[in-house]
Q: What sequence folds into this?
């Protein structure tokens, strides 16, 4: 029985090492000016997919701008931007099959945009109205889509990482040739669940891709106070897991790395850790003001590395995109987002019955009773409950929800 | 019918579930080759292969996180936590994830296939960390179902029902009864209803309510009381949440008296919920206050375990207090 | 005296504690340069240096584990958990370690110096994961003290008492009041007693009991009731455990009626413990069942938050139910 | 802002690595036959300390044999042996100052033996009698000693690892030049608390030594099912932490490695991870039977590497020990253990009041009331409570405990 691979080699002086001699290079294909590096790997992103990717990136950028503005106008309670990280999120998603499962953190709306989440779907969730499939139960940006193989976001950090391992284990047994991608921040990677997940994935050999968006900050906490190690990629050695560090603002590098990771995962059941080096260009969320903890100068430096601009230049160079298309699409999307938002914010709130449905597959008597009492209470004080009272009588109370179930 | 102990009944239930549905998987610390430290998963790896019954690394938060993901994928994971005392590293995965999975997604995703099994409870000289009864923590968490069997017949029927329930279930097994409780168990596949308390014995003067290993205790107390002519109605709650209020209140409306007993500490234990509900729903019918006979408000001790535990004599004293109020 | 909001009072208490004793340290996610996402630790790093006020990596189980060790060493750590909803990854460190440290070692070691602060509660459009009130989980854990202030004056006095208490304390701050609750706060160092409820207003007909942000709610309900001539006694529990049973039962023995309100779900919430104890100790004096006005047995919702929450009108209705029983 | 050390170096092809090219050597000084390797590091263990170490190793071995026998005879409810791992535990402890803090897992009684825990102290804890400072509240082997700077054992695995980091942080601020040693199994290193602890230690630069006893198994789970990586040492790279792998059955290697680790910790505030390769020669605990999961052959192979025998040969060779001393000490210790046990098992159980003391610094009224009710109950049914009833009247009930406080 050997308990380690390298225990055989012995030394007779106490030599400590902290791994400083291990160097993890940064994989990149596109220069900041959008030109590919000479002698780089073959680029397998074809025109159709490239346009789909770019469209999703642009969509995400526009959505984020509009919705942050809406939040500032007080129309929306909360928002989080993907800005600056579109390549990491969308490039990796594009390298998957569309029915591979994604378990993301919260800043990955680009993945949904790429897969075809409609503006209506975004808006209904953001406004928590009666068309939101989750019935306005969660804060804005907690999207989910069964049809698009994207698990509903949950706020507690890192919980999705071991879940992704379990999901992928199920996929492996099912034998459909699918894999799971889980995306998380470098801050979330400090949680115990991260360690649990990577270790289990390596031991049980599951087709999972761990994509860490190392964007420099966890809210206000810079990476230097998050870990002392060489980023997150270096942790893979501890689990004997394949890993790679990529320029997260380089759409081609992210795409190629994830493509290869997917091959390792699906063909060899090798879990893979990808660390995408990027930057959160916006505030952490609409509740945050980064001026308290980082400099404009630093932000500016990263703004120059904008992944969207870089991809655009590459596309333009190839003749796969032109300025006219850019203008038109930008305008169309802006209008679409704005108009859809206007409709969504006016839609009714979810029916009262949705307060208690889905807690269990079948609502227990006590909870049903709580709903009935609540209805009676609201009927006694209709003015105090403008969101639910108006619909109660009209629709026969909880009947409205029950008819859904 | 076969005679078996509670542990064998659990094993039999797992075997039955795995044979009936290949999506059922059993895993946890030492559950593979070894069959679990108590041997609840004995021979399952042999029978169903390493892919369906396996050891995990030693990380409860990972076990439950993994199980949540598997359940979301459509599998039917039965995860073992080696002792209920070690379920807390997984508390976040259970309380923030398992419990809210369906609700937060509007039923787009659910982990209804998940069952978490864990031996729980005292009486085996286990001290703080091999004796706890944490059911009340989970009972305060909407979305969870908590089930506790009291004997081998229940263990098989309730575990099968739990595995197949469309909701995630935490299944606590009274480890003191693993070998001590022996009885006839049907060989075939059967389920006992969740969310239903069982009236184990009818009576008129007082209702005694408990679950799991504590059922034996209230039964013994009832015997002592019957010798004094006090007729006891005995109820096994079986499903702690969502609990069967109607069966309990029906009984108390009849007897006018209630003693609830559990091993967990008094303050914030599930007996509090029962007492609060019963005083509200049976107010005019109660002849005396609902009595709670529970562990002390201390960590679980070792040498003085017997002093700590709510044994038959303590329940008997409570019956007297209730009758003579 | 200075006029400040609850957040400033917390900050002032931390400042006072750090100035008075160099063993006091404040840390947690984003508490350093940034001063915490709510700014409860603003300027503390500037004033006391990076060694005494600092960011931690994003890992709650680590934060509390680290804090346990620091407290055992003789320091006085004040660890922040960014939201009470994220305290569960630390549940094992709190329930199995913090709570049992002194007991299991026979007082050879203790973590009495530890205070864990966390913003809690709803009413800020936070949905499932920025609104929870998890006090009942901890209230079922012997060894823990759980304290919740209702206004700036209390926040400072109770937090200072918590930091200096010989027992580990979980200090939940009602985040809805962080800026909304403003009042006069003494500039000097002072402590308010732990384990003591406060009778906020005397009355004869009915007792209303709550804590934290819910105090405002029962006050509003009381005003409505008083207009109908119902005289309400208002009690702020302040320390959830170990709780001040005597103050509560004294009041109920006088009024004969009790309404308890909290935001957490009904089942297994701390109101259950209070109702269970009161029905037992005031049985013959109760004119009507103890009423519980609480959150629903669901995860915390968003759009229909108002419908979920136990607002003044719900308490008012409960007062009526109790008076007209 | 750079978010990693090595991000500067870029590559243009997706190169994955799992760290297989990193080799962690095994540090060893003593050959299995007790002869030092030629050209090995200087041995700094002097005669006095060497004898103290060996005495503790022998003591631990004898204690374990006797107590396991006692458990088999039904005199003791539970027991766990250190057998096979004495060098890892005692060698590391010996390299510390005696007032450095130790937070151990449960299999480290050797550390206490080395520091002078008396046989009385061992026995009083094992039998949970009235002289046990923890009042018989915990299972056997959950020792603790304030005087010997050894935190009371707690069963939940890995919880002590982040605690050790906090403890060490406090030591650093206190400036006493002490450090903290935390010892744990390779199984426990899978817990989330391990990741939390190592990361925090590296970020906050605390004087802590993490000593992992990699003994091949976590109960029945072999390391191959515990992790896929190169042991536990490899994880240190992910945190940029100094690490070393040592032959855990080689007392000299463990001692020298820990000595150097302590220097790094105390002089440079560098946390260190030591992985001691060893083997659990006995069953996991008295409740376990390893024949279900490992072979006799494997056990035999490791029995030949017994750390006690190896150290003994080295001592004999140096003339620092002789067979006569061995015989004498063995006999003395056996007798001491046996006689002390006989006394301890006859001692009274702890006073009833100890059931409720120490939950809080001051017992709350409700708990005091619970004790009074319990006393009254026991007085009503004295026959049912043979452990507590006899003393109740004699000593005035809870007064006995209260007078202690
Ligand atoms: C368990 C948990 N702890 C704390 C938080 C609060 N929180 C939300 S986001 C965040 C920072 C996350 O940083 P990172 O993982 O780097 O992701 P990024 O925001 O940079 O994309 C924190 C601390 C949380 N949501 N969950
Ligand atoms: C949190 C937790 N989970 C599970 C257990 C049950 N348990 C006790 S010891 C053990 C194995 C530990 O193995 P390892 O850390 O390698 O230490 P060793 O016994 O080999 O010394 C397990 C699973 C526990 N005590 N705590
Ligand atoms: Mg980040
Ligand atoms: Mg081991």
A:
């Amino acid at each position: 029985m050997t308990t380690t691979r390298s225990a055989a080699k012995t030394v007779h002086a106490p030599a400590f090492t902290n791994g400083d001699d291990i160097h993890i290079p940064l994989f990149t294909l596109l220069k900041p000016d959008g030109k590919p590096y000479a002698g780089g790997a073959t680029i397998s992103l074809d025109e159709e997919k490239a346009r789909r990717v770019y469209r999703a990136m642009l969509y995400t950028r526009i959505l984020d701008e509009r919705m942050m503005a809406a939040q500032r106008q007080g129309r929306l309670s909360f928002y989080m931007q993907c800005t600056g990280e579109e390549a990491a999120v969308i490039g990796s998603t594009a390298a998957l099959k569309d029915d591979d499962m994604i378990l993301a953190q919260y800043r990955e709306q680009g993945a949904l945009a790429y897969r075809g989440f409609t503006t209506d779907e975004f808006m209904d969730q953001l406004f928590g109205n009666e068309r939101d499939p989750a019935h306005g139960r969660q804060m804005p940006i907690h999207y989910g889509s069964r049809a698009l193989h994207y698990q509903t976001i949950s706020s507690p950090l890192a919980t999705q990482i071991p879940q992704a391992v379990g999901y992928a284990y199920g996929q492996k047994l099912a034998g459909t040739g699918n894999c799971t991608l889980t995306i998380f921040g470098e801050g979330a990677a400090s949680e115990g669940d991260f360690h649990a997940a990577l270790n289990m994935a390596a031991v049980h050999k599951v087709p999972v891709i761990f994509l860490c968006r190392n964007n420099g900050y966890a809210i206000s906490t810079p990476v230097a106070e998050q870990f002392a190690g060489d980023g997150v990629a270096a942790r893979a050695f501890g689990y004997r897991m394949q890993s790679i560090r990529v320029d997260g603002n380089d759409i081609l590098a992210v795409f190629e790395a994830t493509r290869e990771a997917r091959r390792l995962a699906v063909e060899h059941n090798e879990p893979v850790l990808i660390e995408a080096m990027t930057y959160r260009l916006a505030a952490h969320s609409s509740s945050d003001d980064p001026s308290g903890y980082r400099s404009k100068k630093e932000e500016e430096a990263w703004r120059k590395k904008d992944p969207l601009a870089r991809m655009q230049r590459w596309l333009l160079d190839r003749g796969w995109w032109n300025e006219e298309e850019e203008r038109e699409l930008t305008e169309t999307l802006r209008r679409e987002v704005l108009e859809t938002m206007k409709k969504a914010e006016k839609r009714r709130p979810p029916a009262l019955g949705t307060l208690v449905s889905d807690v269990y597959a079948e609502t227990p008597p006590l909870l049903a009773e709580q709903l009935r009492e609540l209805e009676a209470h609201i009927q006694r004080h209709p003015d105090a409950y403008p969101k639910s009272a108006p619909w109660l009588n009209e629709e026969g109370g909880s009947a409205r929800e029950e008819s859904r179930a | 019918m076969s005679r078996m102990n509670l542990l064998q009944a659990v094993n039999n239930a797992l075997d039955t579930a795995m044979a009936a549905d290949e999506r059922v998987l059993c895993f946890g610390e030492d559950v593979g080759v070894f069959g679990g430290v108590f041997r609840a998963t004995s021979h399952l790896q042999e029978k169903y292969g390493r892919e369906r019954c396996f050891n995990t690394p030693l990380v409860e938060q990972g076990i439950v996180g993994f199980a949540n993901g598997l359940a979301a994928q459509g599998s039917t994971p039965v995860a073992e936590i080696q002792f209920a005392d070690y379920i807390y590293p997984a508390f976040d995965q259970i309380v923030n994830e398992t419990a809210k999975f369906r609700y937060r997604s509007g039923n787009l995703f659910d982990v209804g296939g998940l069952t978490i099994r864990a031996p729980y409870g005292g009486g085996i000289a286990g001290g703080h960390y091999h004796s706890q009864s944490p059911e009340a923590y989970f009972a305060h968490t909407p979305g969870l179902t908590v089930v506790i069997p009291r004997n081998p017949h229940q263990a098989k029927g309730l575990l099968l029902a739990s595995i197949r329930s469309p909701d995630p279930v935490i299944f606590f097994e009274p480890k003191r009864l693993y070998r001590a409780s022996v009885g006839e168990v049907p060989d075939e596949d059967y389920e006992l209803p969740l969310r239903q308390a069982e009236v184990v014995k009818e009576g008129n003067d007082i209702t005694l309510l408990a679950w799991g290993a504590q059922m034996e205790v209230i039964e013994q107390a009832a015997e002592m009381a019957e010798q004094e002519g006090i007729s006891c109605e005995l109820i096994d709650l079986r499903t702690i949440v969502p609990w069967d209020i109607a069966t309990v209140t029906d009984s108390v409306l009849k007897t006018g008296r209630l003693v609830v007993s559990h091993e967990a500490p008094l303050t914030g234990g599930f007996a509090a919920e029962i007492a609060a509900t019963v005083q509200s729903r049976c107010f005019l019918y109660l002849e005396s206050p609902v009595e709670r006979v529970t562990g002390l408000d201390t960590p679980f001790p070792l040498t003085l375990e017997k002093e700590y535990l709510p044994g038959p004599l303590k329940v008997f004293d409570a019956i007297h207090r209730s009758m003579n109020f």
